[in-house]
Every structure is written in C-alpha cells, then in structure tokens.
Amino acid sequence: MAETPEIKPEEQTPKPLNMADNKVYLPRQWPQRLLGSLFVLALIVAAASVTVTIKESLVTKQFESWQQDFYELTDKLGFTVDEIVVQGRRRTDKQELMNAIAVSREDNIFEVDVYALQQRLEQLPWVRKAAVKKTFLPNVINITLQEKKVQSLWQISEKFHPIDEDGKVIEADYVPDKPLLLIVGAGAPENINSLLKIIQQDKGIYQRVKVANFISKRRWNLVLDDVRDGITIKLPEDDVEKAWKKLIKLNTTKGILKRKLTILDLRFKGKIGIKLRKTPGNPDMMLNNGRERNT
Prior knowledge:
CATH superfamily of the domain at 152-289: Cell division protein FtsQ/DivIB
Order of helices and strands: HEHHEEEEEHHEEEHEE
CATH architecture of the domain at 152-289: 3-Layer(aba) Sandwich
Number of strands: 11
Number of helices: 6
C-alpha cells in the first residue's frame, strides 16, 4: 500500500485574507437597555411615592388621633368657650355676624381657628378689618371689628348704593343718617377718589358740593349748594386740577361763587363760561359769548 505523503506546516499554502470576513458585528442592545433602565427607575419612583403616601397617611391619622385626645382632655379640664365679646359693631347685621362666627359656648376654645374666623368676618359687607384673640381662664373669644365708612352715595339705575373710602360698593342695605355726597353715573365709584383728592384742596368749596355727576365715563359735573337749583360746575376731561385751582383763585379774588350763577364752565382753555341765574331784568348771558353744550 502506498503511503500518503506527510505535508509539513511550512509547506501549506496560506489562503489570502478577506478583509470583509474580519468585521465584527455587535448586537444593537442599547435601546432595550435604556428602556429597561427607565422602566426600573419608574418602578422605584412609584414604590417610593406609595411608601411616602402611606407614611404620611399614617402620620396624619396618628396626629388626628392625638389631637382628638387633646380636645377631649381639655374639655374635661374646662377649656370651653365661656364668652364671645364683639366690639366695633354698628352696621353689621347681628345674625350675619353670628353665622360668620359659628362658635357657641361649650365649644373647645383650642379648637377655634382664629385665622379662619378672621377671614370669615372680613367677608361680611360692612367689615373692613377684623381682629380675633383668645384668652384663657376665663375662656373668651375677643372680636374687634373695624367697619367701613360711607364716603358717598351712588345713584345708578334709580337705585342708591353706599360707597366706602376705597370707592367700592358696599353690598348692603343702607339708610343715611347724615348728608352725603351723591355721585351719579356709570363708573363713578371707581373714579370718585381721584376727584375728591382734587376738590378737597379748598374745604369751603368742597363742603358746598352736593352732587358729582360722571358724564359719559369721561369727566365730572359738580352741583353746589342745592341738588335742583344749585350752581353746576363743568370740569374738563383733562387737567382737572389745573381747572380747579383756577376756580379757587377766581373765588378768592373775585368771589365768583357768591354771584347768582346757574352754570360755571371750566372746560375752555384760557376762558370760563358762565350762565347767570334768570331774574327779572337780567337776561341769560354767557361770558366770552361761549355756548353751553350738553357734554
């Protein structure tokens, strides 16, 4: 039998290398890993939230239990409301006040929320500010009210509404107990304070003002002395303070408001329109031949 010739390693012919066969392709696993990480993170956050919620719920329940035990103990020790003292009430309705207080004798005084009570009181129509304090042995709730002051009376749609110092409507029934400035027209309450700041510069003239009529939400007409037969002062839309100072000067130097006038028009620059009261032998006339206008 013929022997197969042995082939030595160095005699083997090497195969040429194919560079394409040397490339290594790794599996694309990073999207799956990212999603998996996010999922695990979400589970951790959810578990932590549930744990915190349970702990807070347990703590809240335990606190409420301790609080109830405290109230029961202090009830037995006599810390119940003996008296409610209210100062400063003049116009506030008594029943509305009691409804807002919502506290009665024998209630636990520690259970009374002073801040919440103050907030309820300041929602009442006549209450501007309220102060609430608790004293113990005797157990008294002291309430001090600062009521709103009526600055003027607003006539709109044949109804009358009291207006406070801030120019806001007081939503309550009101019967005046003294003469008040009557303001008329839409938008009058919101604009009255800026007018008062100007016309109060001369107390003498201001005290004679009976009516302030807001015309077309733009400017004011003032009526002095008498609602029906007084002097009507027509103020301009702009430069009201300048016009008012002109009137003060004329009244101081010429006594213009002592004359028998029905209209004094300050809307014109450099001149003043006047209309004299009609008397026998005294026909109507206008200073500078100015013409009276409705606005």
